Structure formats: structure tokens, C-alpha cells
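Example record used in the benchmark description.
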Amino acid sequence: MYKKLFYTSVLTLVIVCVNSYGKILDTLVIEGLSINKPAVVLNNLPFQKGKEFSTMDIQRSIKTLYHLGLFKDISLFVTEETDTSASLLLKIEEFPQCEAVEFSGFKKIKEDELEEEVSLRKGWSISDAQIHENIKILKQLYAEKGYLLAEIEADLIETKVPGNVIIKFKIKEGKKVRIKSILLSGNKAFSEKKLKRKLKTKEKKLFSSGEYDEEKFKLHKDSLLTYYHDKGYLDAKIDRDSVWYGKNKRDIFIQINIVEGTRYYVGDFYFTGNKILEKEHLANQTNTMKKGKHFSKKKFDMTKMLISNAYREEGYLWVGVEDRPNYRGDTIDITFTITEGRPAIVRKIDIKGNTKTREKVIRRELQLFPGQKYRQSRMERSMREVMVLQYFENVSPDLQPNEDGTIDLVFDVVEKDNIGQFSAGAQFSQLEGFGGNFSIAIPNFRGAGELLDATVEISKYSKRFSLGFVEPWIFNSPTSYSVSATYWNSTYWQRNYQQTYLLQSLRRRLKWPDDFFYATLGYHIGYQKDDRSLPSQKVINNKGFYILKEGILSKVRFSIERDDRDNRLFPTRGSFFSTTAWIAGLGGDFKYVKGIAEYQTYFPLFWKFVLGARSKFGLLDGFKGNKYIDTYDLFAAGGIYGVDGVIRGYAERAFGQRNSRGLAMLTFTGELRFPILEQQLYLAAFSDAGNVWDAFEDIDLKDLYPGVGAGFRLNLPMVGLIGFDFAWGLRKAGSGNPHFGKEINGFQPSFTMQRGF
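Model output (C-alpha cells):
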């Protein structure tokens, strides 16, 4: 196009340069316009009728008109001239205008996907370059799908509107090309089979499509070199590779030749320039690289990062760490030259992005404060604490240096669209059958971090009404206060059971043994009644316990817990431990002591898989003398709504309570979790085991009931967490509750809300 512009400009200058310089434009005639209006041309000309123009004006005019992208050809001629004036003729050939884009011959790719890829739109001018570019785009799309031999042509079809055309892409998809064989040569240290596992481009096999993508193949070749570099072959390279088609035009053959080079081993590490941190402390950061082992580039990069982080932890943000290798044959010694600089002091901290959440709600979770020396661990802890609130999708810290050596911290938060949860409708559970529910929960009420929730549940066997409120920060301290009121009436197993109670608690973050610990003190006061036909008192288990039909329950709860999980809903690392004791008998009719200890741990595996493990132990006892309890004070386990213990693959509450048993409980759970969509959709395989016994001395690990299964959890805005589990009980458990059939083990599907795995 630009070459044509050049020659056209030269031709025009030849025509007009002799006589047109400094003349007055008498008339200007424009020919060839059918799509664009004359004003489009006239507004882009540097001269006008009755004004003087020059050859430079003409040259600029042609360039300007071409740059509009509307015209295919432009010619300017002198039609008449005198000594003082000249008349010009401007001939223009317009690009056609797109009226529609159509496709034919496509089968393997949907039309809407083709339309999304092309850059031509209705009303746009169509140039030859644009057509060529869009053919390339469509060919690339087909190549990504494995159709490397696809042929695409474009036809322009005139319409009834002058200058308008329909551009029609005619596609011959051809057959899908597959990788028939990948040949590796030059490899001596590792087998071809092992290297092919590392290469992400795969041959067509039973479980591999064998699709070929040229751009991805370039990246996948680097994965081979990365593997070699991590195994000590730092000089490894691919000196040549070739790709060719088979005779049938459907098979692709790839050959890669590798030059391995020398394998290097770890030598000694030396440090110079360090004054703040001792050499011994820096040497500890190199522990991932053992002397005499093969030299791994990945571990070496991690070592440099650990050395930098050791300084960042002490506030030296601008530390420089340079490495100088010294080769002793196949052994590499490394000298690290440290440029420490000076420590960074936090001058101020700003919060941005919080449109709903009050700034103090975020600021009180931060572990860094103005005037302090910057520490990397406190920065990371601050991010964790803000994310644990569950109000934000992301927290991004920004460190802004100042001329005086201090830094300003900016925490940029992205609030979730709507963290309130509302639901109303029907529900089903194995325990309660079908029913209706209404619930609302506002986790960030008034933007102050408060929680307000209300629930109404009515099913075939029960009614439940509850109202709760949590203030997370009272007395200007990390102490939360919660209060809830609940009424519950159930008619399970031909009994009418009622509970009305008020629960209050204080929860405070501790500083010892570390600031991941929390202490909770709560008080429960309520009235409960069981109308089933029992004597007013009944001794059970020969342990001195009496079951009361009704009375006032007054109990105190005390618990200690430690929680350093990175996320409470779907944690990927960290642990949770709690020990809780209920003491009933400070007034009221019921007298007992009940304790539960729980431990959870999570850590990441390969890719995005996370392994989690949980255990729970419970014991019910009392003071000297009479011990008065309600049936529901006994431990219950089984199913996912097992009240105290989860053992999926068995009916709800299959163990304990219903048989007037349950003075001791032990459950275990292991899970392997994988995110389909981070923080939204998760799949997991799990294994549970547990049981409930008459007394502590009866606990026997051989008497556990195991279950295995799989399930998913979906976190929906305005609804919350919902999920399904499909589990199998692996041990026959005898007859169960009549609501669930005669057998309480076997295949047990379950639906849950607001519970993780």
C-alpha cells in the first residue's frame, strides 16, 4: 500500500510541480465517491477553493487520505491552469464497506466462535490487508484445534447497496493433524520415555489427543531444558528440531536433538559484603542445596530468593544479591556479594478499594504499623488476616519508597460483589426429609465487620428459629462478642423435643504462645423438654448418669484454639486446633462436664491438589455424685449432619444418642481436594472413620467404622456454600433409625449447606 502511495505521489508531483506551485485553487472536482461523503475528503485537505496551494500541500493531502484507511486508490490531476490559478481533479477508488460476514464449510468450530475471532464488523471498510489478516486469524484458530491443513478463502459479494459487500469466508477444514511420533536424539543421561513425560507436547495415544500447536511446542521444548537444568546439566540445549508431515498429510513427525553437556555438582558457598546478617545465618538459607549433590537451577534460584527474604525480614528491602560462580571441573562454588543498603521504616499505611468496608475493619487486622521497621513476615501475615475476613477477592500490597529512605504501604483491596447470603425455598436432608427454609446472613453488616443472621427452618419433623449477632471488635480490642437466641422443636422417633435458649460468648485473640491463639468464654441458658414416655429419671450405662425429661440448662463454655490456616473455607496450608469444655451445673437442673478436642491440618501437594486431615475426640463425664443429662448431650456421629462427628457412608446419627449411648467419641477424616474454580467450585475424595462408645475405657481403634466417597462444594454469592457427597460405608453397622431403612451403612448420598468437606 505504501509503495503504491509513493509512486502515486511522485506521479502527481510530476504532473503538477511545474505549474502549480504558489497558484490559487480555482476548482476541485472529486470523482468516485459512493460510500463516503465529500466532506470526509475536503476536511482532510490542507487547501481549499480560492486559497493558494503548493506541491507540498498536494503530497500531504494524498498521504492523509490514504491514512484514513477508507480508500484503495487516490489520483490527483491538473485539468486546467493559468499563470495564477489551477483546477484539480481528485479521482478516488473506495474500499468496499462490510454489510455482513458469513462463513461456509465449517463443521468442527462453531459459527459464533468464528465470528468472535474475526476483526471485521458491519459498517467497516474492508481492505486487502484486513482480509489477509483475518484469513491468518482463522487459520491460526484451526491450527490450535489441530487442523493445520485448513484452507480458507474470502469472497466479496456485492449487494444492492452501492459500495456494500458481504465478505464470505469459504473454509475447507481438512482432516485433523495428529502427532504420530516424537523422536529424541542425543540424550544419554535420561531415557527417551522419561523425557517424553516431561515434554507437554504428546504423541497420539490412548489417553493423549496428540494435537500440535506450533506456539505451545516452542514453550514445551523449554520444559525439557528446565528438567535438564534442574538435574545439573546447566549447559544443556536443543541444537536443532524439525517438524514434518507424513505422506497422508494427517500425521506429524517431530525430531528433537539434545546436547546435554556436563553435569555439575554443588560446591561451597561464600558471602562477602554482609554486615547485618552473620554468614552462618545466610548459610542456613542454602540448605536446599547440599554439597556434592547435583546442581539444580530451580533450587539455586530459590536459594537467592531466601537470602533476599532474610534481609527483607530485617527491613532491608533494597538489598542486592549478586552471585559469581567458580567452576572447579564439574563442581561449582558460588560467591554471593551482598549490597545491604539501609533498612526501610514504614512512614504511613493507606487503604484503597474499600467502598463498603470501613477502613478500621481492615486496619485493625494489619501487623505492620507506621514507625516500625519493615518485616516481610508481618506483611504476609497482614495479607492473610485481611483475606481471612472473607470480605475481599484480593489484597495487593504496594511498597512506595520515599526520598528519606522510608516507605509508604498501600493495601489495595478488591471487595467481593456481594458477600451477604440469602436463601428461601425448599430443602431436603436425610435427617429431616423435605422442608422449607428462609435464612439471611450479612457477614459485613454496616461495613463494620459485624455479622447478623436469621434462620427459619420448617420440615416434616422439626421447626427451628434463630437470630444471631456478632460484634468482632469490642472495647477497642481484638475481642468479639456474640449473642444468639434459638427455639427448636422436633418430633424424631415418636418424641416431642423442645429447646429454647440464649447463648452469649466472648472471644479474644491472644499474644501467647503466639498471636494465632484464641480464647473463648461463653454462657448458655435455656429450657428443654423431652415428652417421650420415660420415667422422670433413668440410669444409663452404669456410669451414674441420669436422663432428665425436662429442666433448665445452665452451662459455661471455655475453649482454646489456634488457627493459622490461610483460608477458613477452602484452606490450602496451615492447621487448626481447638479444645473445648462445657461445664453444666452452675445453677439449673443438668450437671455434667463435656469436652471435645479437634485438630485439622492442610498442605499443598503437586499442581493444585491439597491434602487435609482432621481428627476429633470427645468425652462426657461429671462431678462427684449424681450426673444429670439430656439425651442430646450424649455424643452422636454418622453421616454429614452427625452433630458431633462426621462419618459419611452411614445414616445420620447412626452412632450414639439414639441408643442412649455416647459418653466417648472418636472420628477421623482425610480428604484430597482440587479446585475447578478457585474459591468457588471444588471436588474432593474423602475417607472417614469413627465410632461412639459407652465409656472412655471402651475406645478401641479396631472398632472404627470406615467410609469412603467423593463430593463437591459450590460457593454461590447470596446463597453460600452448597454441596453433595456420595459415600459408601465399608462395614455393616446393623439396624438403624426407621426413617432411613433397616441398614445404616452402604451407599449414602447427602446434601449439605454451609459446610466444607
